[in-house]
């Protein structure tokens, strides 16, 4: 796949208007004795109160880790901007009694990759920094505490991956703090591993050790 082909796939995915059409993963999930309904919103039709709730949930769940990570820190303004990008997509999980359970924020984007990560018969360029592929990137997966460890997060990830395959994304990718051992264990159980572009894979060890996060990925190609 050429870089231009990848950009066309990302553009096509971003311009779609019914991203879940044809997906087989259920948009309902039973937990806490009541059904959870999962709804997909683009940024333009996401109600403002849900956007604010999602931001607040990220801050409640991750603020301490951001503060502890000296290479990132926390900024309300920066996080809100990140969660308000043009092509932001939100899977919102809500219980039948109206209680908000959690969300997954993702985008279709072009991302760098290491040629060793994707095997093909094509010649790879020596300038690997210019190599990019289309991916579905999970920027946030956050659950309210009463809905954690009940399988809902894994269910949201399955929906994400199916949407990624539907639009021919090469990988599902995400970023996780090294200190977040529970999240790392969770993603590894789902088949994710440290990606070739993660700091620990391509930076000198001393420099990589100063970076607080790793980038994980899972191949979505049907022929993988």
UniProtKB/TrEMBL annotation:
GO cellular component, one term: nucleus
Reactions listed under catalytic activity: N-terminal L-seryl-[histone H4] + acetyl-CoA = N-terminal N(alpha)-acetyl-L-seryl-[histone H4] + CoA + H(+); N-terminal L-seryl-[histone H2A] + acetyl-CoA = N-terminal N(alpha)-acetyl-L-seryl-[histone H2A] + CoA + H(+)
Domain N-acetyltransferase span(s) in chain numbering: 36-216
Pfam families the UniProt entry points to: Acetyltransf_1
InterPro entries: Acyl_CoA_acyltransferase (IPR016181), GNAT_dom (IPR000182), NAA40 (IPR039949)
Record keywords: Acyltransferase, Cytoplasm, Nucleus, Transferase
Keyword DNA-binding recorded: no
Localization, UniProt: Cytoplasm; Nucleus
PROSITE patterns: GNAT
GO molecular function: histone H2A acetyltransferase activity; histone H4 acetyltransferase activity; protein N-terminal-serine acetyltransferase activity
Family: Belongs to the acetyltransferase family. NAA40 subfamily.
Name of the protein this chain belongs to: N-alpha-acetyltransferase 40
């Amino acid at each position: 796949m050429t870089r231009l082909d990848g950009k066309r796939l990302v553009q096509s995915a971003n311009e779609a208007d019914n991203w879940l059409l044809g997906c087989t993963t259920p948009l309902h999930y039973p937990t806490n004795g009541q059904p959870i309904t999962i709804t997909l919103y683009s940024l333009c039709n996401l109600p403002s109160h849900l956007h604010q709730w999602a931001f607040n949930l990220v801050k409640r769940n991750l603020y301490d880790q951001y503060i502890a990570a000296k290479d990132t820190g926390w900024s309300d303004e920066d996080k809100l901007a990140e969660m308000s990008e043009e092509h932001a997509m939100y899977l919102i999980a809500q219980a039948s009694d109206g209680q908000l359970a959690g969300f997954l924020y993702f985008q279709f984007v072009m991302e760098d990759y290491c040629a060793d990560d994707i095997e093909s018969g094509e010649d790879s360029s020596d300038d690997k920094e210019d190599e990019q592929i289309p991916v579905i990137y999970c920027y946030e997966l956050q659950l309210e505490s009463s809905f954690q460890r009940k399988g809902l997060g894994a269910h949201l990830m399955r929906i994400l991956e199916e949407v990624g395959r539907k639009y021919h994304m090469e990988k599902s990718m995400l970023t996780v703090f090294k200190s977040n051992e529970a999240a790392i264990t969770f993603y590894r159980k789902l088949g994710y591993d440290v990606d070739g572009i993660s700091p620990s894979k391509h930076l000198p060890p001393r420099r990589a050790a100063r970076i607080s996060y790793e980038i994980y990925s899972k191949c979505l190609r049907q022929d993988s």
